[in-house]
Amino acid sequence: MHLRCMILHDDGIPITAEKIATLVKVENVFVESYWPNLLAKLSEKRNIEVVALLQSLQSLHLLVLRLLLLLLSRRRRYCSSDLRPT
């Protein structure tokens, strides 16, 4: 739902519950009727650009974590193969 707020913000359209509900309807997605109103109120209190930045940082954080886990699993496999008797 927050992506709809960012779409409206990027286009310079005021973020209202009606605009969010229209985007949801156009996308043919079902959401509970209270979500557009909640998001509109949230966007009044929060800077949408900051929310977008935090979401990007969260995605970057998850990517780095996945890469570290992959590297650790490969290292563990490599180290355990050295311990096997030949």
Can you tell me about this structure?
P1 and P2 exist as dimers at the large ribosomal subunit. One of its GO terms (molecular function) is ribonucleoprotein complex binding. Belongs to the eukaryotic ribosomal protein P1/P2 family. This is 60S acidic ribosomal protein p1. Keywords: Ribonucleoprotein, Ribosomal protein. The mean pLDDT is 76. The chain starts with a helix and ends with a helix. 77% of the residues lie in helices and 0% in strands. The chain contains 4 helices and no strands. It has 2 domains: 1-46, Arc Repressor Mutant, subunit A; 57-86. The longest helix is centred in the C-terminal third of the chain and has 35 residues, at 48-82. The chain is mainly alpha-helical and 86 residues long. α2 crosses α3.
Task: Produce the secondary structure layout.
Blueprint lengths: L1 H9 L6 H10 L7 H12 L2 H35 L4
Helix pairs in contact: 2-3
Order of secondary-structure elements: HHHH
Low-confidence stretches: none
User: Would you give the CATH topology of the largest domain?
Assistant: Arc Repressor Mutant, subunit A
Cα Rg: 22 Å
What is the level-2 CATH architecture name of the largest domain? Orthogonal Bundle
Average pLDDT confidence is 76
Protein name: 60S acidic ribosomal protein p1
GO molecular function: protein kinase activator activity; ribonucleoprotein complex binding; structural constituent of ribosome
Subunit structure: P1 and P2 exist as dimers at the large ribosomal subunit.
Family: Belongs to the eukaryotic ribosomal protein P1/P2 family.
